[in-house]
Write a structure and sequence with these properties.
Strand content: 15-25%
Radius of gyration: 25 Å
Distance between the termini: 19 Å
Number of helices: 16
Helix content: 25-40%
Shape: globular
Strand order of the largest sheet: 3-2-4-5-6
Number of strands: 17
Length: about 575
């Protein structure tokens, strides 16, 4: 039985046309857009920051720091959201008249995630701060905040991660996911929370320094957009406005030298920038620094005012990304062997509900990517572990729809005390640490809990599509408007279509023939146009004239300055004629 299900989105009736293009109207209506005004995405559509938890306390403490010229230290995270959050905080505080501000990013390998006691001690020894402001972390840093208090340092937490049962004793915790929050959304990335904090702070500071009212915080929206998209948070109405406004700034050339430099090394065009360019171009290069070395390089790239320096730093980030890819390829080969050996030992392995793999020398900074790749391939929750060189394993988890991975880990902690020593994360991704001796116990508990939540039924991969197209819809105009009409993302996915095709030709391409290049014709048209298509990481080898069912999106292929529409195939299978 196929473990793939294709579901066509329903298109509810809408009172007025959402767009002059009927295809665009259909796509938007299927995603819950009800009036054309929702396409405006103006900043005035954003909710005010007043309803964020603890925003008044945070602002009051920050105002005091500004008035008394205190030393403020921003402590970020080593991913793209953390880097952009740190840069937004640094630039925003400078605009608002703070004169003693610096930042510190924990080292993934020696200090770990968040405001740990280790990073607090380092911060105090190096910077002697009066106030620590966390960005994209801190909501779970009970011990770190306690350490800061012991050393006489106040902490303001700005974060978006799900809170634990016990919160740190900070001066303020600004987080839309806190219990009792009345803020209009819960999906802000860390960079969005920091941006909102700056908006509230500007308003408060204007009362004592009218020049602060002119602080151009909107110039930070390019960084807000990059961090929001790269962190794969739900693209709700608030994030659509933030991201669209940032994209418009980048397209209009009003972006920072570091962003321009990153676009150049990624081979992306600023004037046609989309969320895909962030997700596959900018995000991986910024993330690579934190995965392999020091995210300070990424932050400095975003902060520098020098185009020359930005180019040097972007080149370094690009080299880190190339090295990350090389490391990842080796890890994937090893993982494939482990999976093959497991199946050879027990055919029942194919019916397991989870995948847990461990290799002592896997790179801690890349295990999250490997977990994501295997999750996409096998459509099961995955945890990948690497050794820490001592007695512990560091794990990275990725999940599928319907399995809230952080809740799974919490259940394991409750039912199996001591198995997991530390953990945190979201519904779809999490990190954890456990003693090497508890690995088999964790593996069994993880399988048991996911099996229970799945009610004994292996998950079926679902492709939610916008239905079929006719060949006349395959135009450059349609492809361009669909790419840019809205910022697409999680829970507001980019348009995807399905159809039955006749294979005109097909051939493997890429390293080792991993991808499939196709020429296709629609089956249900008497004079169908032939169109090129590419299916990445595809093992199917269809024969000419063979009917196939494909799920695909429209894309523009550029070859020798010639632009043409091609199909990006997300799923393809042999099909009976319908």
């Amino acid at each position: 039985m196929s473990r793939v299900r294709i579901i066509k989105r329903k298109v509810p009736p809408v009172a007025a046309p959402l767009h002059e293009n009927p295809l665009v109207h259909r796509v938007l209506a299927a995603r819950g857009v009800t009036v054309p005004e929702e396409l405006n995405l103006a900043l005035k559509g954003l909710p005010r920051p007043d309803d964020l938890p603890d925003i008044d306390k945070a602002v009051q403490r920050l105002v005091a720091a500004r008035v008394h010229n205190e030393r403020v230290l921003v402590i970020g995270d080593y991913d793209c959201d953390g880097a952009t959050s740190t840069a937004v905080a640094m630039l925003g505080f400078s605009m608002l008249g703070f004169r003693q501000v610096d930042y510190l990013i924990p080292n993934r390998f020696s200090q770990g995630y968040g405001l740990s006691p280790l990073i607090v001690d380092k911060a105090c020894d190096l910077h002697q701060p009066d106030l620590i402001v966390t960005v994209d972390n801190g909501v779970a840093s009970v011990e770190g905040v306690a350490t800061a208090r012991q050393r006489g340092v106040d902490v303001v937490v700005t974060d978006h991660h799900l809170p634990p049962e016990v919160l740190p004793n900070a001066v303020a915790i600004v987080n839309p996911n806190l219990s009792g929050s009345t803020f209009a959304g819960t999906s802000l990335a860390g960079v969005g929370v920091m941006f909102y904090t700056l908006i509230a702070l500007r308003k408060a500071l204007t009362a004592i320094d009218t020049k602060c009212g002119n602080a151009p915080l909107a110039t930070l929206l390019d960084l807000v957009a990059i961090g929001t998209v790269a962190d794969v948070v739900p693209m709700d109405a608030i994030n659509r406005i933030l991201v669209e406004q940032g994209l418009r700034r980048i397209r209009g050339g009003r972006t920072r030298p570091g962003v321009r430099a990153l676009l150049k090394v990624a081979g992306r065009s600023a004037d046609s920038m989309t969320t895909q360019d962030i997700g596959f171009g900018l995000g991986p290069r910024l993330n690579a620094a934190g995965r392999l070395d020091d995210m300070t390089i990424g932050v400095e790239c975003l902060l520098t005012e020098s185009a020359e320096r930005a180019g040097e730093l972007a080149t370094s980030l690009n080299e880190f990304n190339q090295e990350r890819r090389r490391i990842e390829r080796g890890m994937r080969d090893t993982a494939a062997k482990q999976l093959a050996e497991a199946e050879a030992v027990s055919r029942a392995e194919t019916s397991r509900f989870t995948v847990c793999l461990m290799q002592e020398d896997w790179h801690q900074g890349v295990i999250g990517i490997l977990a994501g790749r295997i999750k996409e391939s096998l459509h099961r929750p995955v945890v990948i572990f690497a050794g820490d060189g001592e007695e512990h394993l560091k794990g990275s988890a990725r999940s599928i729809d319907g399995i809230h991975i952080r809740d799974v880990l919490q259940t394991i902690v409750t039912g199996n005390p001591g198995v997991i020593e530390k953990f945190g994360g979201h519904a779809m991704a999490a990190g954890l640490t456990l003693a090497r001796a508890r690995y088999d116990e964790f593996k069994a508990a993880f399988e048991h809990e996911v099996h229970r939540l799945s009610h004994g039924q292996l998950a079926v991969r679902e492709h939610l599509t916008d239905g079929a197209l006719v060949s006349a819809d395959w135009t450059l105009a349609n492809t361009q408007v669909l790419a840019s009409i809205m910022p697409w993302g999680q829970h507001f996915e980019a348009p995807v279509f399905d159809g039955q095709f006749r294979v005109v030709s097909s051939r493997p391409v890429g390293k080792g023939g991993a991808h499939l290049k196709l020429s296709l014709e629609l089956f249900n048209e008497s004079a169908s146009t032939t169109i090129d298509a590419i299916a990445f990481n595809c093992t199917l080898q269809p024969l000419p004239d063979e009917p196939v069912l494909a799920v695909y999106s429209l894309d523009i292929n550029v070859w020798r300055d010639r632009r043409s529409v091609q199909l990006i195939v997300h799923h393809i299978e042999q099909a009976a004629l319908r």
